[in-house]
């Protein structure tokens, strides 16, 4: 995953996922312009394996994160991947996916992503909605719906890893409760904001009750 080569930046001309736009409007009598990008909404799922009390998370290489960490590369610049290793762009995330399937509910999309990315077979009834929020409100504004689901080892039916035919390269990782507490505040790790929200919710709403049952 971290072996990145021949990384260079070019202007965006066409995309299946992003559409850049400009909007003109008047606010409180003042004419304004705003540049933004439209993209599809997505779902995120925090998975907790109750067989061993571990979180099921994923790691991916994110080019945008990599480029931000490199910082020295501009449009048309080829990045020296020997100086800037691919690990700079690897993120720890929730299982997630775009809401791009017609005639499927958000829960059905989340169910499919859990199977594809993490290899667990769950029911839509296993999903508990945590919250819904907006992404990159100054640039995108799309919706993210965050769910929680508990799984067991018996529900593990494949290795996951995403769909190879869609170019996905995903590593499934297991994180203990203690490791997750540290991960929330570990700024040395590239973590996405939805993961932090979900973990904070878990430790506030779920874990106290589990600790009570154990004692």
From TrEMBL:
* Subcellular localization, as worded in the UniProt entry: Cytoplasm
Enzyme class, first EC level, given as a word: hydrolase
This protein's cofactor list reads: Mg(2+)
Residues in the signal sequence: none
Keywords attached to this Swiss-Prot or TrEMBL record, sorted alphabetically, are: Cytoplasm, Hydrolase, Magnesium
GO BP terms, alphabetized: nucleoside phosphate metabolic process; ribose phosphate metabolic process
Tell me what reaction this enzyme catalyses.
Answer: UDP-sugar + H2O = UMP + alpha-D-aldose 1-phosphate
**Quick one: a GO cellular component term?**
cytoplasm
Domain Nudix hydrolase span(s) in chain numbering: 38-204
* GO molecular function annotation: metal ion binding; UDP-sugar diphosphatase activity
* EC numbers: 3.6.1.45
What's the domain of life for this entry? Eukaryota
* Protein purpose: Hydrolyzes UDP-glucose to glucose 1-phosphate and UMP and ADP-ribose to ribose 5-phosphate and AMP. The physiological substrate is probably UDP-glucose. Poor activity on other substrates such as ADP-glucose, CDP-glucose, GDP-glucose and GDP-mannose.
Quaternary structure, per UniProt, is: Homodimer.
The molecule here is called: Uridine diphosphate glucose pyrophosphatase NUDT14
Originating species: Biomphalaria pfeifferi
